[in-house]
Write a structure and sequence with these properties.
globular; 23 helices; eight-stranded mixed β-sheet
Length: 479
């Protein structure tokens, strides 16, 4: 049993060996449970996202067959892999339910109290808006013992906060995504990383939660967790292993300073944040989180020469931060092309064949109108992901290669419609280009209006988006 479970007391012997696993993508929790032979368990899912979207029966049967043949490595190769995937970070809980691993879900997406009369109808609307069966949500969800409970696709499903969890007779599966904490600190009023972690520990103790397997996902892809918050994953793991350790102890010193630096930055005190991060590095020159956060702040301040060595040091300690070099290059690209290419070259030097660097290089070429060069980079990446497929479609469209553009768009839109966490509106340029194509070249007024309408309904958060919106309204004959 974990140290945390031992602290709250567990009067039953654990059914499985204690295990706390860190992972890049949350879908890999399925592989952990498969390796441990998990069957018929309750999962406490602490995550900003529900991760329980529908998977068609054919893929469930294929997954079940691979489990029965103990070929989980083949399942691993088809996680988050685009068109041929068996499951992804947005639906692995559904796969776990359908294959008998879990029989009940408690979803905790916020630390804020849910005990008011307005929460039940709000939660029901939220779940229906996510595409879950409307009739089942309306008929099964209600307040029971102060908790919002119902079923989704037949599994008992509870939406609550950590401190309101009931007492469980047997140990549960603890399933955590770090984006829960990122979301938590951004809620009004804003919290510090320390206060969020403290409340998590307090709520765990109040709930007397007993677990024997914990999975912790960083979720860095798609920026659900920004790279500067990756260190939160290690902090949560440390807390679960040593819940009685005070946050004022030496082992938490770096985390406390990182939290302080983060709050200074979010309050607009960039130099004070930089000074605080330098304190972390004086105590531990190899602290990758502090190096990356410094690189990020220097980049935002236009101090690219100061940023680069810190970004490189972060990547030396932890290869995940090599993608940070590509991310910083993207931030720089519109202001200093040469500096951006220096960051990208370093990213590829430290992580040869980096798809992140190739994707950013493609973006930079695309924004410069160098579409053939952009296409070469996107095709290098072409990992089956929705984003790359749609970017390839955009690039072909700008090159007036309409046949290839439409082929990629069709594939991308099909994946979006099956996706648990993406929507067509995430690709505003694609919608605009498709609308223009069908109006002026394909001569299909119905299709043109469909894509224009989707584009026009996207919130306009930038001057570029506002100008494109005005152009459609002014120039299209469909409005």
């Amino acid at each position: 049993m974990s140290s945390f479970a031992a602290l709250v007391g567990c009067d039953r012997a654990p059914t499985l060996p204690t295990d706390i696993s860190l992972m890049d993508e949350h879908s890999r929790a399925f592989l952990v449970w498969a390796a441990k032979g998990v069957k018929g368990r309750t999962v406490i899912h602490i995550d900003a996202h529900d991760d329980y979207r529908f998977i068609d029966d054919e893929k469930i049967r294929e997954t079940q067959s691979l489990l029965e043949r103990k070929q989980t490595e083949l399942i691993g190769k088809r996680l988050d892999s685009g068109a041929d995937e068996l499951m992804n970070m947005g639906n692995y809980l559904y796969a776990a339910y359908r294959t008998g691993m879990i029989t009940e879900i408690y979803w905790i997406y916020t630390s804020e109290s849910m005990k008011n009369d307005r929460m039940l109808p709000w939660v029901k609307e939220m779940l229906m808006a996510k595409g879950y069966p409307r009739e089942e949500i309306q008929n099964t969800f209600g307040l029971r013992n102060g908790l919002i409970k119902g079923t989704i696709y037949g599994i008992p499903f509870t939406v609550c906060v950590l401190e309101d969890l009931p007492t469980f007779r047997d140990p549960v599966l603890l399933d955590i995504d770090i984006d829960f904490f990122v979301n938590d600190i951004r809620q009004a009023p804003p919290k510090t990383l320390v206060s969020s972690i403290k409340k998590f520990r307090e709520d765990m103790l109040k709930a007397k939660l007993k677990f024997d397997i914990a999975t912790i996902a960083f979720s860095l892809n798609l920026d659900f967790t920004p790279l500067e918050y990756k260190h939160l994953g290690y902090a949560v793991k440390r807390l679960l292993e040593n819940p009685s350790e005070e946050l004022t102890s030496e082992g938490w010193k770096s985390f406390m300073l990182l939290s302080e630096a983060d709050m200074h930055y979010r309050n607009g005190q960039v130099q004070t944040s930089i000074d605080t991060l330098l304190k972390v590095l004086r105590a531990n020159p190899a602290d990758s989180a502090a190096h990356y956060y410094l690189a990020y702040l220097h980049t935002l301040s236009g101090q690219y020469k100061s940023a680069l060595p810190h970004a490189v040091e972060a990547a030396k300690e932890d290869q995940d931060y090599s993608r940070g070099l590509a991310h910083l290059a993207n931030l720089i690209s519109e202001k200093d092309y040469n500096a951006a290419m220096t960051f990208l070259n370093k990213a590829e030097e430290m992580a040869p064949g980096s798809s992140h660097a190739a994707k950013v290089r493609g973006d930079i070429y695309f924004n410069q109108g160098l579409y053939q060069k952009a296409l070469e980079q996107y095709l290098r990446v072409n990992d089956g992901s929705v984003a790359i497929i749609m970017y390839i479609g955009d690039t072909y469209m700008m090159m007036r290669d309409y046949r290839n553009a439409l082929q990629y768009y069709r594939s991308g839109i099909e994946l979006i419609e099956r996706s648990a966490f993406m929507k067509t509106a995430d690709f505003s340029l694609s919608l605009l280009l498709l609308g223009k194509y069908y109006e002026h070249i394909g001569k299909d007024r119905s299709a043109a209006k469909k894509y224009y309408d989707l584009f026009l309904n996207i919130p306009r958060n930038s001057e570029e988006q506002k100008a494109a919106y005005a152009e459609v309204r002014k120039k299209s004959r469909l409005y």
